[in-house]
Amino acid sequence: MKDVVDITDTSSSDSLLLKMRMTKELGFDFSPASVIMDFGCGSGNRVHELRQFGYQAFGCDLKFKNDKNIDTGSMERKGIVRLIDKKHYALPFKDNTFDLVFSDQVFEHVQDYPQAVSELARVLKPDGMCLHIFPSRYAPIEAHVYVPLASIIQSYWWLYCWALIGIRNEEQRGAAADETAKENFNYLKNNTNYLSRKAIRSQFLVHFRDVVFCENTFLKFSRKGKYLWALSRLLPFLPSIYSTFRGRVVLAKQPIKT
User: Fold this and answer.
1) In terms of pTM, does the model score above 0.85?
2) Do 131 and 229 fall within a single domain?
3) pLDDT per residue as tens digits for the range 41-76
4) CATH code of the domain in which 72 resides
């Protein structure tokens, strides 16, 4: 086991390596004493990986995903990964627990932003930081149902028209168009919540004094985005285009304690 994450170590997964390099660049001082939380941890794979590197890592989610390579059940029994109270979005951790909280493609599923962001501020230490990666509200293709502009246009008939011409996700192959459209309509209505950049910033500023968007840093360290980042030195508007149509990255610090 390594004592500390080496941010140049390519044995780390791309997803974790990206977050580690970003947070280092943005001022997070990693040490073996760092306490880290993966908000929306899925199977707990990133939590497991961080612990392999010697960190006190924890995760939480509304429901855990299955991963044949990760013993999520064992981590849950040990309190390493924990379920969130879905009704109240209460995080199962004490106040001022974490030095770093991160999430990746999670907040588009959060139905109660004020409570979720409030809880993140509560469990974060006063000198800690949050880093959250969001899919854009204006992405050309909605990532869960694969329908163009479905993060904005969520009417049944819009979804039905695309289902008629064969648009399906992996789990819908062979399903009838009306069945697919109904399933997509219900999923988008009950499981997604795409906010604008302005709305995201407003929600976080209620509970954090320092909130900035840092897509440029994301692109700099992203395996594919680094080429766009290099090109942005000649075309400085490129990160803004990426933010609008692809994804947003929020850094929040100085939590407001109530």
Assistant:
1) yes
2) yes
3) 999 999 999 999 889 999 999 999 988 889 999 999
4) 3.40.50.150
